[in-house]
Amino acid sequence: MVKKSIEILDTTLRDGAQAASISFTLREKIRIALLLDDLGVDYIEAGWPGSNPKDYEFFREIKNYSLKNSKIAAFASTRKKDVRPEKDQNLLSILESDVNSAVLFGKSWTLHVKEVLKTTLEDNLMIIADSIEFLKDHGLEVIFDAEHFYQGFKEDPDYALKVVNVAGEAGAKVVALADTNGGTLPHEVMEITKYVAERTRVKLGVHMHNDSGTAVANSLVGVVSGATHVQGTINGIGERTGNADLIQIIPNLAIKMGYKVLKENESLKKLRTVSSVVYELAGLHPNPFQPYVGENAFAHKAGVHADAVMKNTKAYEHIDPTLIGNQRKVIISELSGTSNLINYLEKIGIKIEKKEEKLKRALSIIKELEARGYSFDLAPESALLIVLKELGLYEKFFDLKYWKVINEDKLALAVIKVNSRVEVAEGAGPINAADLALRRCLVKDFPELEKVKLTDYRVILPGEVKNTESVVRVTIEFNDGDRTWRTEGVSTSVIEASVMALTDGFDYYLQLNKKLKPLFLKD
Ligand SMILES: [Zn+2]
């Protein structure tokens, strides 16, 4: 059976860029467009040249690239009243963009026609028809966005429907029903979209905003009710509370509802990367709770969950996380059980029985440390060091005998003694000095540590901790070009906590490389 296709129009670069605090440079826009093309969306709505002349640069620049999947579209309003199409700046701006596809928006709500446009209902239909025809005559395909459609429909269904049919008859390839202020709920979208789909022959689309928190649901319901074109943005960025999030819509349509979306099904695996690059370029922190792609989307913390997922992943996962480029994460914490630890150990090649007493002992040490301000969610490798010690798999490669960090008068100096070697280092700050001195002590015996880089450093104030004075928690992320790991230290002093996290980070790497790797390379 051939799957029904749903066309995707991405408007991250137009509606998305209208979000508060987001502004993309030309280079960033090009990068996002290439990413969207590679993902395989059908249309990239890339700008509104009539309102933002800077968008011309984008339309010129993108011509230097050959896109393999997506068509580039420019956005504009229908012509002004009393202005002929060939004299209308907005329509001319689309021709100047030199694109083959245009998205035109126009009025479908009588209130807007009468009070905002200040014209007659008949005249508005003429405006829509001859704006579309003008662009069609110049060889463009036109997608018509019916602004405030759902609200307009509630007030005057006959007129709203007439707008759809007039746009279709004028040659619009798609008429997208827009919930411009995001106030419509899914059951209303279903009723209204169905009504329209039964009374028009033009291909319908939906353009939803998230003001009621239902933009994704509204888009899916729109499809169920007859729309075959969906507009949205990556991560749902957009004006106010944003647009419908394509990162959620696309997998729902493809994986759950069996539609053909994107040029290739394999592209679904790119969703997580596309999401994170757009967050980065938008200057936003990724949302860890974002469905499908969030850091926590497949994280299991409670012991019973981790245990069940290890028996059968379907127990607590709605899809296989790798389908959309995400991965399962089992968290070690005071809430977890031995299953969470086993899962981590398996990842580094150690198989162990769940009933193992030593494992239970390790878990009780972990829980006790969490009560004292540790939180292994963010630093599982510090917890793994404890487990390795309890299991007798740990080997002491070095002994931190003494350390002192001096941080005064713009001078950051660290003195560190490891085994019998003493090293001093000056750094850009106290943590950098400690890192450098510790490395100097270690690299002669362990040159592999040269590859290890610090990629993230965070200080967290854990808040209330039982029976202790106030402490800070430092987590450090390390990377050797291949693998990433995170460790932590907790102390009343930031520097001491940092030295603990640094020591753990290097220690973990040596355990993995020197102690554990040779073990599982043997068989
Ligand atoms: Zn919009």
From TrEMBL:
SMART domains: LeuA_dimer. Residues 6-272 form the Pyruvate carboxyltransferase domain. It holds the Pfam family LeuA_dimer. One of its GO terms (molecular function) is (R)-citramalate synthase activity. Keywords: Amino-acid biosynthesis, Branched-chain amino acid biosynthesis, Isoleucine biosynthesis, Transferase. Gene3D superfamilies: 1.10.238.260, 3.30.160.270, Aldolase class I (3.20.20.70). CDD domains: DRE_TIM_LeuA3. PROSITE patterns: AIPM_HOMOCIT_SYNTH_1, AIPM_HOMOCIT_SYNTH_2, PYR_CT. GO terms for biological process: isoleucine biosynthetic process; L-leucine biosynthetic process. It is an enzyme of class 2 (transferase). InterPro entries: 2-isopropylmalate_synth_dimer, AIPM/Hcit_synth_CS, Aldolase_TIM, Citramal_synthase, LeuA/HCS_post-cat, LeuA_allosteric_dom_sf, PYR_CT. Pathway: Amino-acid biosynthesis; L-isoleucine biosynthesis; 2-oxobutanoate from pyruvate: step 1/3. SUPFAM superfamilies: 2-isopropylmalate synthase LeuA, allosteric (dimerisation) domain, Aldolase. It comes from the Archaea. Its EC number is 2.3.3.21. Belongs to the alpha-IPM synthase/homocitrate synthase family. This is Citramalate synthase.
